[in-house]
Write a structure and sequence with these properties.
Helix content is 7%, strand content 34%. The chain has one domain. The chain is built from 1 helix and 11 strands. By secondary structure, the protein is mainly beta. InterPro entries: Epithelial_Barrier/Signaling (IPR051495), NIDO_dom (IPR003886).
């Protein structure tokens, strides 16, 4: 399946998402999307967007071990989870559209998608979230949308000014980290247990 990392804080499947103004979920346009922070990001004012696909080999095992530990601690029925593929997208120190200069407020956030071939998960990491919207756009949408108008999950505070506090919230008891199981249509966003990972 074609995957696109969009500048606006969206990872989309099947087609790019050019809309800078986030929509409320559910969005029934046929495009599944993962939205770590769908907002009016403008990297022309500084900051970077980077992404990479990683397969599990001995030289990359450290990042897999750390991510696997997060999944095992978050979902008690996944105590033997061992990922084999990972995709990491990072928006680092990005400004918003309409920012006046290089010293404008910046956001840093990341999405990590991973699978063992059977079970799939997404981890959203947040650091230094200083703006919720850019220009005249709506505050950011955070979550998932299957594109079918039925299956979606919107993180509490999405599309409100409160989304700027996402770096202090969590669904697993670790500030700035949200973890979701994404391999079926019923996206699970609540952890079965919490841990200090």
């Amino acid at each position: 399946m074609l995957m696109q990392v969009n500048n606006n804080g969206v990872i989309s499947f099947l087609a790019a998402v050019s809309q800078f103004n986030s929509y409320s979920f559910p969005v029934a346009d046929g495009r599944p999307i993962i939205t770590p922070f769908w907002a009016d990001v403008d990297t022309r004012k500084g900051g970077t967007l980077s992404y990479r696909e990683v397969l599990r080999f001995a030289q990359d095992d450290g990042i897999f071990l750390a991510a696997d530990d997060i999944i095992r601690a978050s979902f008690v029925d996944m105590k033997f989870f061992l990922s084999s593929w990972m995709f990491i997208a990072t928006w680092d120190s990005v400004a918003f559209y309409g920012a006046s200069n290089q010293s404008a407020a910046r956001n840093s956030f990341q999405a990590v998608m991973m699978t063992d071939g059977r079970y799939s998960f997404a981890i959203f990491n947040y650091r230094d979230i200083n703006w919720a919207a850019g220009g005249s756009s709506s505050p950011a949408q955070v979550g998932f949308n299957a594109g079918d108008g039925v299956n979606y999950y919107s993180v509490p505070g999405s599309r409100t000014a409160a989304v700027v506090d996402i770096e202090t919230t969590s669904n697993i008891g670790v500030s700035g980290r949200w973890v979701f199981r994404t391999d079926n249509s019923n996206i699970k966003g609540l952890a079965s247990t919490t841990s200090g990972v």
